[in-house]
Design goal:
This is UDP-3-O-(3-hydroxymyristoyl)glucosamine N-acyltransferase. By secondary structure, the chain is an alpha/beta fold. It contains five helices and 34 strands.
Length: 312
């Protein structure tokens, strides 16, 4: 997320009431999670395991819970609680704006687009030409939708990321200040949920088709011309390259990449990157032919056990 203007380091430090290391006028352009940071961004880190990754990332401001040597060309914000302070920055620059009507006056809707009754369209939403939005769809603030997009009833675009930190008495949510971009010629079925990015954009690329009751987590990138069948769950920060097919009830863990042309057969669970144009099956999923051989071998176990008993 980029800020509306360039801020000085001391302004951000004052906002969250923390010490800083670096030039007071050091420029701060925005904030982002580690996987999408750019020069000028703030990134937070609160565990020693990830200090080096944050300090060596593209981020030029590191919100950290320990005084460490500051890398050249960077600045530090020293916080007792980087997670909570990151939330303070998020909500300051992206505070919730209550709706006053079903279709916001700030929404931009293209020619030929049909919006059925009982649709909610939030603030600063952009919808392209010749789209069809069926009843009871909810489109949260800031979502961008291209041309020739169809959204079926009950779908929600822009809910918060499922991202929490455990505290002694409760779970603290990492506030989501990102958005969603739906490109041209996408169709999304009924009762789907697509979460907005924490600081970046969850993106569904051109020509992808999504069945009913699919969950897509925060900051995912779904490539062009993908097919996603019903009851699929895709965890946050996952990348599907172009022409990936996920059949019913597939589960995808966070942060992996499914290579171009990957197919996952029904009820598979994948927890690692895939190879291009391969078909996978099982949980944990493996290449289809190898998994089918494993299944075939397992079915022979009762006969083998009985044979051993008979020969005993």
């Amino acid at each position: 997320m980029k800020f509306p203007r360039t801020y000085a380091l001391q302004e951000i430090a004052k906002l969250i009431d923390v010490e800083f290391v670096g030039d007071a006028d050091f420029p701060v352009l925005g904030m982002n999670e580690i996987h999408v940071v750019e020069e000028g961004d703030i990134v937070f880190v609160d565990h020693p395991k990830y200090y080096d990754k944050a300090l060596q990332s593209k981020a030029t401001v590191v919100l950290i819970n320990k005084k460490v040597d500051c890398p050249e060309g960077k600045a530090l914000l020293i916080s007792d609680n980087p997670f909570s302070d990151f939330n303070k920055i998020s909500t300051h620059f992206n505070s919730f704006q209550p709706a006053t009507q079903s279709i916001s006056a700030s929404a931009k809707i293209g020619e030929g687009t049909i919006i059925q009754p009982n649709v909610f369209v939030g603030n600063n939403v952009q919808i392209g030409n010749n789209c069809l939005i069926h009843s009871n769809v909810s489109i949260y603030d800031g979502v961008s939708i291209g041309n020739n997009v169809t959204l079926h009833s009950g779908t929600v675009l822009g809910a918060n990321a499922f991202y929490y930190k455990k505290r002694e008495t409760h779970f603290e949510r990492l506030e989501s200040c990102g958005s969603i971009a739906i490109e041209d010629d996408v169709e999304i079925g009924a009762l789907c949920s697509i979460d907005k990015g924490v600081t970046g954009i969850t993106r569904i690329k051109k020509g992808t088709k999504i069945d009913n009751q699919v969950q897509i987590g925060h900051d995912c990138v779904i490539g062009e011309c993908c097919l996603i069948a019903s009851h699929v769950g895709i965890a946050g920060c996952t990348i599907l390259e172009d022409e990936v097919t996920l059949w019913g009830q597939v589960g995808v863990t966070s942060g992996i990449t499914l290579a171009k042309g990957t197919t996952l057969l029904a009820q598979s669970g994948i927890n690692k990157n895939t190879e291009p144009n391969e078909t996978y099956f099982g949980s944990p999923a493996g290449k289809m032919r190898e998994k089918f051989k494993e299944v075939a071998a397992i079915t022979q176990l009762p006969k083998l056990i009985q044979k051993l008993k008979n020969n005993a």
